[in-house]
Design brief:
CATH class: Alpha Beta
Number of strands: 8
Shape: globular
CATH architecture: Alpha-Beta Barrel
Number of domains: 1
Strand content: 5-15%
Strand order of the largest sheet: 1-2-3-4-5-6-7-8
CATH topology: TIM Barrel
């Protein structure tokens, strides 16, 4: 069955590399984007939560987007975070992103305002009508304080052809089933948590918008491919092997641990912008022990 939009199976929510002054290192961003695409990523998401989007200026976002697009030109899709808890801002950012030739948008359920389901419909309807770009709704109740219901997602997906997918960052498997039952068949569900990818695949998810794929993109990709080709034991074994790392990458607020892991691997520095702080030495030792064990095994 053809999808209304196919961003691939592994979308990496890319970190934003900083130097010691906590300014964006655009050269490192290009190198990292190229590395991700060469190691399992079908698409990269720019300036999301993992990319510390809330602390980037608009000018930084656009320059970062330009750097990433240059690095992956023709090899992978580039998705931009254009969400906001202000509907007018989300619409304006979506229009600007369209001018920058991004492939798709990620748009989060409005945070802090705690809108009703009717408010969410009004919010995403306005965004969908402001752009022709494909839109992935981002549902993450732990950060937003509200949960968009499957029936609301389905109503939006049925009304707007350019609302193409949802990133589900919550452990409610019944909600995944309900989305698959209520939404159009060509509408995609992505796991928003690495450790939930395999369970969600069993319910019809397309893939994952991943943090672990920064380090283990080929392994995440092989797990998904093995599941979809009927090699269930191989997929389960890879899930079990990756699981300790998937959980440890959230031992502190995202993206602090994954940046430390990338620095450990020599792919970028571990600097984050305030109010986030880097891991301390004890935390790094704990994280690196799990990473090193994976390579030893």
């Amino acid at each position: 069955m053809a999808l209304r939009y196919d961003a691939g199976e592994v979308i990496t929510a890319m970190v934003t590399p900083f130097n010691s002054a906590r300014e964006i290192d655009y050269n490192k961003a290009e190198q990292l984007a190229g590395y991700l695409v060469d190691n399992g990523s079908d698409a990269v998401l720019v300036a999301g939560t993992t990319g510390e989007g809330p602390t980037l200026t608009h000018e930084e976002e656009l320059e970062l987007l330009s750097s990433v697009r240059r690095a992956v030109a023709g090899k992978a899709k580039v998705i931009m975070n254009a969400g906001s808890n202000c509907t007018a801002t989300a619409c304006r950012t979506s229009k600007l992103a369209e001018k920058e030739d991004v492939d798709a948008l990620l748009s989060v359920v409005p945070y802090y305002n705690k809108p009703s389901q009717e408010g969410m419909i009004a919010h995403f309807s306005a965004i969908a009508e402001s752009t022709s770009l494909p839109i992935i709704i981002y549902n993450i109740p732990s950060r937003t304080g509200v949960n968009i219901q499957p029936a609301t997602i389905a109503k939006l997906a049925n009304k707007y052809e350019n609302i193409v997918a949802v990133k589900q960052s919550c452990s409610d498997m019944d909600a995944v089933t309900e989305i698959k039952l209520l939404a159009p068949e060509d509408f995609s569900v992505y796991s928003g948590d690495d450790s939930l990818t395999l369970p969600m695949l069993s319910l019809g998810a397309r893939g994952v918008i991943s943090v672990a794929s920064h380090l283990f993109g080929k392994e995440v990709k092989s797990m998904i491919r093995n599941y979809k080709t009927g090699q269930f034991i191989a997929a389960m074994n890879m899930h079990k092997k990756l699981y300790p790392i998937m959980k440890k990458l959230f031992m502190a607020p995202n993206p602090v641990p994954v940046k430390a892991a990338l620095a450990h691997k020599g792919l970028c520095e571990d600097y984050v912008r305030r109010p986030l702080v880097e891991l301390n030495d004890e935390q790094k030792a704990e994280l690196f022990a799990v990473l090193d064990k994976f390579y030893e095994d």
